[in-house]
Amino acid sequence: MSDGYSKLEKHNGFFLSDVVGLGKTVVAAQIAKNFFYHNGFPDYLSKTLVICPPALCENWQETFENFGINDYKICTNGSLHKIRDPRKYDLIVVDEAHKFRNDTAEMYNALQKICKTKTRRGTDKKVMLVSATPLNNKPEDIANQIYLFQDKKDSSLEISNLQHFFAPKIKKYKELKKESDVRKMAAGVKELYEEIRKDVIEPLTVRRTRTDLEDNELYKKDLEAQGIKFPYENFTCKTLR
């Protein structure tokens, strides 16, 4: 959680990409609460906007209430046009963020407007993109998601000009998709994505696997105290069948 908060402060946003079942909603709520208290509370009331599919609204509401977060709004993906004054939100949490990837789509444009509008204090928005699969997109889709909280020509990463970084990769990806040799195409795509992962995704991502939880002594003790065990063997057997 401290890693996520530091990325939020340094880069104005990040991907929260824990594998399925590790409580991304809970982690996001904890980071939102930390942000709330570090953002001038009670002198300045920090507001959080959660954007999610309709089926997940109740889960987010319950989690935020459990964490004692009161000043927030939940908006469904299809209702972004109802956000009349995006300036009053300091933190934007986007669940299933991979659905916002096409920069020609109305839904993406509405989200980008919300994320790029300055707060009432004149500061940049903080954006948390919750998705288990940030790399399962085309290069331009990944770029579009990052542009929700980064300046494409002057980023906070070592690669300052993201537009310049992604342009040849988008072109290369389109060429590879036309390759008739499947093995050659797969090797080319793997190399392409490795570069994107290492230079862009990794510095902007918080990701825990089940192994991470079992290797970390603090997490491991918590799992043991709760009597939680991950069903690796059963999962493997079902997969092989």
Quick structural overview:
Helices cover 47% and strands 11% of the residues. It is built from ten helices and six strands. Helix 4 (106-116) links the parallel strand 4 and strand 5.
CATH superfamily (homologous) name: Tandem AAA-ATPase domain
Radius of gyration: 19 Å
Shape: globular
CATH-derived topology: Rossmann fold
Strand composition percent: 5-15%
Coarse structural class: alpha/beta
Strands, total number: 6
* CATH architecture descriptor text: 3-Layer(aba) Sandwich
Classified by CATH, the class is Alpha Beta
Number of domains: 1
Largest sheet, described in full? 6 strands, parallel
- Low-pLDDT parts are 233-241
Strand order of the largest sheet: 3-2-4-5-1-6
**N- to C-terminal separation?**
37 Å
